[in-house]
Request: fold
Amino acid sequence: MPRYLTLAATMTMTLSLHLAGQTTTPADAKDIGRESSSLRIVGRTVSRERSAFDGAIYAEPTGTRMIDASGRRVSDDNGRTWQTVTPKPDFGAGLPYGYRRDPVTAAVDSKNGWLVAIVNALDTPGLDPKIEEPPVALKTYYLRYRVSKDGGRSWLFEEPIIQAGDYTTRHPLEDLWVGKNSIFLGDAGSIPIVTRAGKILVPAQMTLVGPGGQLTNPGGGWTYTDVVMLIGTWTDSGRITWKASRRIQGDPKRSTRGMIEPTLAEMPDGRILAVMRGSNGGKLDGEYRLPSYRWFSVSGDGGETWTTPEPWGYGDGKPFFSPSSMSTLFRHSTGRYFWMGNVSESNCQGNSPRWPLVIGEVDPKGLRLVRSSVLVVDTERPEDRHEGRLDLSHFTLVEDRKTKEIVMSVPRAHGGYKTWEYATVRVALK
Reply:
């Protein structure tokens, strides 16, 4: 058990001074500590138990009912207490051995109150369900969606996402042939958004088919993907008519894994910002010479077309270093925008180091991170070094409708994801 966990660890506490990370904060990010120009930490709990807010969203446009993407954890009192329920119907029940239905993220449409959940799916007979990220998934992942009109108390259906037109379950989108390549959501940050025009945008990633009809990896990294946005329009029955955006294609000479795990926010002027994970390393960059940037692209037409991705950074135009890890864009009810992810003081090596974990405000006009707003949420501490490599990723966040605080659920993984404890951090806006 980590030395800093005690019986009091599950009580809310203010963040200790060493979390300001004087030796680990990004060298070019000023005023990082317990508060920044935009944010301040008001509470933190650490527990061996998974945070009650992990993966939670509000299931209805108003009120205090919360649910996770799977529909199996529900709270009707703003997250104070939770119960485990069986979804009605339970779409995962009775599937053939080896098939998978893994709900990743969900969103509620504030106009009609309907809830949509996006599901990573595999139809792979005999595949051991204990294998995480099986290699065959790069050829066989496809997406399904579920809809609820009653806050997740029941679900109308679950069905594959298939583009309107001459498409099928085996060829659901342009450039996608299930069995040759795949489409999937990479992590919890790839949250659907509903635009002011009423369109549902699902940020996804797609593996590539080469000239010979086989899976291809032009960057030589662990995987290689393009980003594609799925654009949905509601029908009266609650189903969604789908189309796909033009792909956001990276340059394998700049990011050896292409563009990964997009996260979205619609700005007041209607532009949509996508921030994406990239990577260095792999067969073409064995010495990690490529800069480990975060990448961004912008759409001015509702998500159908996107600018060529470029390194993302601060308002002065300078990019920052960031490992190959998920991140999340987040719109607060005040209309302010925030980004949460890993920022490093020096060039990273592929996925590492996945600390510090920070949150900062995004300028809605310049579409960049406000340097003075960046706040360390968590980072490596001396105690962590005895537990093996620290990874701060796979987090989720939600705005508490009562307090307006941002509640962050952060798994603290050690030793290559062999052991965990879980932090819940509350941040107030300034």
